[in-house]
TrEMBL record:
The modification 4-aspartylphosphate is found at D64. This is Response regulator. The keyword Phosphoprotein applies. Keywords: Phosphoprotein. PROSITE patterns: RESPONSE_REGULATORY. InterPro entries: CheY-like_superfamily, Sig_transdc_resp-reg_receiver, TCS_response_regulator.
Amino acid sequence: MTAPKSPQKFIYIADDDEDDRMLFLDALMELDHPASVKEAQDGQELINALYDSIKQLPEIIFLDINMPGKSGFDCLKEIRTSQQDFKHIRVVMFSTSRNQANIDLSYELGADFYAVKPSSFQGLKDMLKRIFEIDWNSVPKNQHEFLLC
């Protein structure tokens, strides 16, 4: 008897680098993890999409920091302070930067995790698998376990 697949997750990837978005999508496909993925090319596009689809919000947003217009930090701040029901959305800052100031600011602004983009495709798959296996209801927000690399 095969185990039932976990329910499909609805996630967003917001990153201005098309290659990074494509790698993300390819890694998800290879993981065979049931997910519906929407893409945003910049922060403003993400925020607009959240307000436009208030009845179907994502469970997780993977959010790049450095994007033109509205940065990942600007988006995170708006998501966490919005009067809309965005506070329950899990946000993973997803960046190549290991800068401690960026990590600290992400934590202070309310991100759930900070993930350093792996340098290999297999590393990306492994990281995504770890993130999708997190039991979000039992993970206390802890600065010591905030950084994923």
